[in-house]
Each structure stands twice: as structure tokens, then as C-alpha cells.
Amino acid sequence: MAAEAVVVDAADRGLAYGDGLFETIRTHRGTLPWWLRHRARLALGAARLGIAMPDDARLDAVLTDALVRADREFGGEAVIKLVLTRGAGARGYAPVDGIAPTLFATASPVPAATPDPLIVDLLTLRLGVQPALAGIKHLNRLEQVLGAREANERGLDDGLMADADGFLTCSTRANLFARIDGRWITPPVDHAGVAGVARGVLIEQWRPEGGLRVERLPLAELGRVEALTLSNAVRGILVVARCGARPLDPLPDGLTEACAALAASHPAFLES
Amino acid sequence: MAAEAVVVDAADRGLAYGDGLFETIRTHRGTLPWWLRHRARLALGAARLGIAMPDDARLDAVLTDALVRADREFGGEAVIKLVLTRGAGARGYAPVDGIAPTLFATASPVPAATPDPLIVDLLTLRLGVQPALAGIKHLNRLEQVLGAREANERGLDDGLMADADGFLTCSTRANLFARIDGRWITPPVDHAGVAGVARGVLIEQWRPEGGLRVERLPLAELGRVEALTLSNAVRGILVVARCGARPLDPLPDGLTEACAALAASHPAFLES
User: Fold this and answer.
1) Taking the model in full, what pTM does it have?
2) Nearest by CB to A10, which of B19, B106, B142?
3) Considering only CA atoms, which of A31, A37, A25 is closest in space to residue A234?
4) What ipTM score was computed for the predicted complex, to two decimals?
5) Which residue of A13, A96, A130 is the best one to mutate when testing the B interface, meaning the one whose CB has the most B CBs within 10 A?
């Protein structure tokens, strides 16, 4: 059976205003090991935007259907993208009561492995500071699109993004962990950026020597970074070999433990 | 014939990332008096985002179809919403070459008149500063959605929005013009906000006494504002009666000339 194209009403507020949320969920043998974490972030985003969170029965139905398609088309190792929008409504920014949220899921193959370790650099594009939207995975992603375009144009594997106040925040598609003076730091995501699911696992379960601090990382510190890793829920942990002209430690202390912590939580990352 | 529902591929980047642009165009007797202005802003946005601008034949076909529907359903006085996205593509933020942009238009009735003069206040929500996206009418509009929600919750007709640096920028759905010490000012839109089509007409063609200055408006100046008007391409010029507890001049010097300048450019605003 051919995959049926999923279509959305052109009046959907997800399209009109990016008025919605998404989750990109790595499968493993037809299951979603991190589903409860993705669900928690989705619920947080829904509460922040004032969108009704679908009940578990509806979420399960949509995800089960996507898993079946993923299994049929990609053999069980796949990425499920779940989208929740405020629904289709009349023109005008103000959210209208009584419209039914849109919920659907699509399946894609796991992306091809990127060159690892990565070559990155600081992008010229800065992230706007917006505490009301920071942390959640909403559909307003033009900054990431423009950032990814800049990274591509500069021949980078990914680009580091600082916010408008000059704090290093994330890459275009991952959270970042930097080692400075032998200690690991990851920036908070309360001004910009997304609270990544893999980041959450690492904050909870990775105990490198000296600890992992969640701390703002001024751009001035970038020159002192000794090692840099990027994490997201699709690719796990990727190590950065070089930031601009500066080579970084490709096998920093603590990396093995970070990968082990992630794999213990999500077996798709056992091999990474 | 019933209106056919316009649908969009769920993989459209307009939905996935807000990776696109729109124009909200007021019709008049089945024509679009400001089309060339809307087209110019759309072209600017397309260039900024790196989306191929559709040629005039395609734009004309889509708009003519929407005008026919508007005429049939709303009698010729309507609002046409034109949407251009980068098109449907694979997962991943980076724009992919070779996908066909999505272009469609929908028609809505002219919105019911708002109470005029308006009651507004400064919103607590600030706009992120993002020069790469400021000025263009892109699909990342969650700040406006959250701003409109706050305005509704506070019982306001609209809300004034300052940017993260503390400069008054716009309302949730309009550009603003403030009179201070007898002279009119409108803020630039190079850090946040949209370069409104009605705003463009007023900057070009309204010549109030003392001139109209395009100048940053620090929040500290808000207490000195004597009169405030809001403009957009759907509603024309609206006068603000009160900002928070402060009454403003409902018939300020220069207002008649502003309305005349707009009406001379777009006859739908003759009666306003």
C-alpha cells in the first residue's frame, strides 16, 4: 500500500502563524524509548501556548499508526515527527476558543550519519531573546532555517548560535556541551533555544568529573573551550573536531560516560 | 458551488518551520489597489529568506482566482490572504534546493469594525530583536499570537509591543504613529515588527505639520505621547483613545490628512 499523503487545512494556524509545537522522536525496534520525555515537553509547550494537550488515547493512536508506517517503510529504525497545532481557524492572531487542535505524525528514515567529528563555527546570525518561547519546541523555526543555510553556505557541518545578548546557546539543531578548564557546561534555554530531550537525559544522568553545570556561556569564553559536543534526540551525541580554525579535543574526558548515559536511556544510541 | 477547502502537504516547510511569507490584501470592487506594494514586500521577504519569487503570471492566476471567490462569497469587499512557502521538503532545517515553492490565496470577509477609538496598553510580552527577520511578513508569528492573547485577556482592543531592548515597536497587528510635542513619529522596523503597507503609504504621502519622523521610541517616551494611531492594510487607520489609564487626543492635528493620504491611495479607506 502506498503511503497516503498527509494534508492539512490551509487555514490551520500551524501554517498561518507557526502556532503549534512538534516533537522529533527516534524509534527503536518499533518503540519510542523517550516518549514520556517528549510528551512532557509537548505538554509544557501546549500549556505555554494555551493549546489543549491531546489525551493519551489520541496520542497513542496517532503514534501507533506512525510506528506501523515507520516499521513498514524503514524497518523500525526511524524518526517520528509529531505535530500539534492550535487547529484551523479564522484569520487574526488572537487564539479563538473552541477550535479543535490538529494532531498528526509522520515517519522518516534515520538521517544519514554526519561526518563525525564535526566542523562547526560561530554563525553571524544571532537568536532573538524571547523568554516566552524559549525552551519549548514550537513551530517558529525561521532562525534555525536561516542558521542552517548560513552553516551550509560556509561549508560547516553545523553552526553555533549565540543569542542577541551574546551568550552561546545551541547549534542550529542541537544543544551544546562545552568543556572549559576541565569542567563541562551546557547553557540554559530560558532566553532562547530548545530544552532538548537528550540534553535532559544528560543533565540528569551524566556525572562527569567536576560535574555538569547549567550556566550561561558568554561568547568571550568560546576561545577557552577545550572540547565541544552536540546532542539531540535523533543523532545522540556528536563530537566537534574544530570550531573555526581552532581544533578541539576529539576524545575529551567524560565523553565515554556521556555516550553511555544516553545509550542506557535510549538503546538506539548504543552504537554511537 | 461550495468553496473547495484548500489543503497543504503536511510536509510543507511553511507548516514545519513557518518557512514562508504572507500578505493580507484588502480588495476594493474586485481589485487590489495596493497589490504592487504587497508584491514588493513579498519579493523582499522572498529574497531575504532565499525563496524563489513566483513570476507575475502565477501570482496573477492565484490572485484572480481568489478575487473571483471573494466576489462570489463577500461581494467584492474582502481580504485576500496570499501565502508563499519554500515548499514541501524532507525533514531538517536547511533549505533544500530544487523544491517548488507553495503559493495559494484565500479570501475572507472584511473584519467587523473594532471599537474606534481604541483602548490599548503596553503588553508585558516583548518582541525578540531579530534584524534578519524584521520588516518582512514571515510566517513565524507566535509573538503576535501570544501578544493578541494577552491583549484579549486584559480586555484591550489591541496591545502595544516593545522590543527586548525597550523600544516601542508596533501593536499586535498594526504599525503605530505617536505624536510627541506636536510632532509625529513612527518606529523603524529593522529590529522587530513588520514594514506595513499602510505605514509605507503614510511615510511617503502623509505630510503632517512638523513632518513624520521614522525614529526609535524608547518606552520612557510613552508617558509623553499625546496621540496614537495604528495602521494596517486591512483596517486602515485606527485612533487610540486611551493607553492604560492615560487618555489620548482622539482628534489630533494631522489625523485628517493621514486618513486622506490613505484614502487617496486605496479607495476602500475613503469612509474611514
Assistant:
1) 0.96
2) B106
3) A25
4) 0.96
5) A130
